[in-house]
Design a protein that fits this description.
By secondary structure, the protein is an alpha+beta fold. It folds into 2 domains: about 60 residues, no CATH class; about 190 residues. The chain is about 20% helix and about 30% strand. It has 8 helices and 16 strands. An 8-stranded antiparallel beta sheet has the order 11-7-8-9-13-5-2-15. The termini are far apart.
Length: about 260
């Protein structure tokens, strides 16, 4: 019953008109008075922001704020994999032989997430990491490795919540939400970076379209809170043993190494 009620109310509110209203409001100067309460509610560290709060004219501008260059340390390394976002590293595990990942005790199809069984097959028995960004997190995405972009594509039309209730009761949001996937090749194999849209706003903006990603550089940003999923081929990734998942991570922190 709880699951059905949750889905009913989400379907009721997640329509084009409600998305447009929210987008209009957050992009309007009318939303500026909400910035200070937003900072307080999410305990945002103003000292690391590139500009003071009064610089931002809309809640949306504040939401996609940049940080001071020294605010994040990139732990560069040829064999290092660093966090692409400030987030809760919520789940990590093995992609099953049926090409599924299990998040909040719920299976998600990697074939559906990537759009085809053929693409998913490369990651069978590999490793996945799920990074959840709350509204208060810094929302710019950085490259976890040095890699060559082999392909980028987008799937899905609507987006549903990717918070804890959304993952538990929603209709497979990680595999069905609007999402943009970038596949990277590196010396040891291939990595899929899945950027998942959040409820109401299906917008993921690229910072550049270069064919090469450099570790730690900004590559995209979310217009509203969401999730990043990393998929590694089998035998190519080892999780940092010092991480007690779930745990908070920041851009540039080492989350693992190449096998």
């Amino acid at each position: 019953m709880q699951r059905h009620l949750y889905r009913f109310f989400i379907e009721l509110t997640n329509k084009r008109w409600s998305s447009r209203l929210l987008e209009r409001y957050t992009s309007s100067s009318v939303s500026k008075p909400m910035i200070r309460p937003f900072i307080k509610a999410y305990r945002i560290n103003e000292e690391e922001m590139a500009h003071p709060a009064d610089h931002y004219q809309t809640l949306h501008d504040f939401f996609i704020r940049q940080l001071l260059p020294e605010a994040r340390v990139i732990e560069y390394g040829k064999n290092q994999v660093v966090s692409p976002v400030d987030a809760l590293l919520a789940e990590t595990g093995v992609i099953t032989s049926h090409c599924e990942i299990v998040v909040k005790e719920k299976p998600y199809s990697v074939a559906e997430m990537l759009g085809s069984r053929e693409k998913a097959a490369d990651y069978e028995n590999g490793t996945f990491l799920v990074f959840y960004l709350s509204p208060g997190h810094y929302h710019r995405i950085h490259s976890p490795i040095d890699g060559q972009v082999t392909e980028t594509w987008a799937l899905g039309r609507h987006s549903y919540p990717v918070n804890s209730p959304g993952l538990k009761y929603g209709k497979a949001p990680l595999a069905k939400n609007y999402r943009e996937i970038t596949e990277l090749t590196f010396e040891g194999g291939k990595l899929a970076v899945v950027k998942v849209g959040a409820m109401f706003v299906n917008s993921i903006e690229r910072s550049h379209n270069r064919p090469t990603w450099k570790q730690g550089e900004e590559v995209a940003y979310f217009n509203f809170g969401s999730t990043v999923v990393l998929l590694f081929e089998p035998g190519t990734f080892r999780l940092n043993e010092q991480l007690a998942v779930p745990c908070e991570v920041k851009v540039g922190e080492t989350v693992g190494t190449f096998a």
